Amino acid sequence: MKMGVLLSGSGRTLDNFHDRIAAGTMQGALAVVVSNVQDALGLQKAEKYGYPAFHAQGNEAINKILLDHGVELVLLAGYLKLYVPPVSLAHNVINIHPSLIPAFCGSGFYGMRVHRAVKARGVRVTGCTVHFANEVYDEGPIIVQKCVHVDDDDSPDDIAHHVFDMECEAFPEAINRVHDLGVDYFWQRVAVAKEAH
């Protein structure tokens, strides 16, 4: 599948994708990288890696770029705005969240806010969740979740570091699952679960 990456910052997740595709451990091809931040380090990295790289503001401009490059799967890799895909990609947007959804998620829970809340609540286990995005924050079908143990003396920064290390495993694994099983599998699985209730 042709994949488009949306990012706002340093591109650490893009580094991970690039390395794993090169190593043959992640399926798909990165067709284009788009950032809403003009001088984002992630865009500079994309150019260095040889990917088409664009700065674009607003969903309409971003979607035109994605469609022009034949993108079939949109990967939100540290993209800090609400993204609204074109109808043709409505079910094909994947996000990663730095907690075990449904804990510590939803509006206002992002980045270090999540890890500070985890520390304040004193939970023993946190982690990350790779999921399909829909119109509600952190509510689309879950693809992969990975757990991280929280020690008593872990600071929010420590938790963030451990969770990001796990994200580097979880996101490529989720992409491989989507390539193997298809996008519809995950949406239908959730629909079936809702009907069962």
SSE arrangement, N to C: EHEHEHEEHEEHH
Task: Give the overall form.
Answer: globular
Q: SS-based structural class?
A: alpha/beta
Helix content: 40-55%
Largest sheet, if any?
7 strands, mixed
Distance between the termini: 34 Å
Structure description:
This protein has 197 residues and is an alpha/beta fold. The chain folds into two domains: 1-90, Formyl transferase, N-terminal domain (Rossmann fold, 3-Layer(aba) Sandwich); 95-197, Rossmann fold (3-Layer(aba) Sandwich), CATH 3.40.50.170. 41% of the residues lie in helices and 21% in strands. It is built from six helices and seven strands. The chain has helices at 12-23, 41-49, 59-68, 112-121, 156-181, 183-196, and strands spanning 2-7, 29-35, 53-55, 73-76, 93-97, 125-132, 142-149. Strands 3-2-1-4-5-6-7 form a seven-stranded mixed β-sheet, with helices on both faces. Helix 1 runs parallel beside helix 2 (41-49) and helix 4 (112-121) packs across helix 5 (156-181). The longest helix has 26 residues, at 156-181. The chain is globular and about 50 Å long. The mean pLDDT is 94.
Chain-wise SSE layout:
Layout: E1 2-7, H1 12-23, E2 29-35, H2 41-49, E3 53-55, H3 59-68, E4 73-76, E5 93-97, H4 112-121, E6 125-132, E7 142-149, H5 156-181, H6 183-196
Parallel strand pairs: 1-2, 1-4, 2-3, 4-5
Antiparallel strand pairs: 5-6, 6-7
Question: In a few lines, what is going on in this structure?
Answer:
This protein has 197 residues and is α/β, with parallel strands linked by helices. The chain folds into 2 domains: 90 residues, Rossmann fold (3-Layer(aba) Sandwich), CATH 3.40.50.170; 103 residues, Rossmann fold. The chain contains 6 helices and 7 strands.
